[in-house]
Amino acid sequence: MPDQNRSIGQLSKLSGVKITTIRYYESIGLLPEPGRTSGGQRVYDEASSNRLLFIRQCRDLGFPIEAIRELIDLQLTPNADCLCPSSGNLRLQAA
């Protein structure tokens, strides 16, 4: 699939995440600052779309924001030490 740029509305529909939530994830640094059109509208690339889908899946599984941030950091720096301070507090429950 070729790299495709999406507006925030398109990204919201694709991911099922509200526009306000997407902006919130940007403001706290879970999503990188998107590119902008000449008119100032946000433009999201495929990497941002994939990251948002990952965040949504983590939230659906009950992961707190800080744990998601740690998972993203591990993905960005795969050779880093994977001892996460809050990971010891995570418990996954079987449905």
UniProtKB/TrEMBL annotation:
Pfam family, one: MerR_1
Superkingdom classification of source: Bacteria
Keywords recorded for this protein, A-Z: DNA-binding, Transcription, Transcription regulation
Annotated InterPro entries: DNA-bd_dom_put_sf, MerR-type_HTH_dom, MerR_fam
Start and end residues of each HTH merR-type domain: 7-74
Regions annotated as coiled coil: none
Molecular function GO terms recorded: DNA binding; DNA-binding transcription factor activity
PANTHER family: HEAVY METAL-DEPENDENT TRANSCRIPTIONAL REGULATOR HI_0293-RELATED (PTHR30204:SF94), REDOX-CYCLING DRUG-SENSING TRANSCRIPTIONAL ACTIVATOR SOXR (PTHR30204)
Protein name per UniProt: MerR family transcriptional regulator
Species of the source: Henriciella mobilis
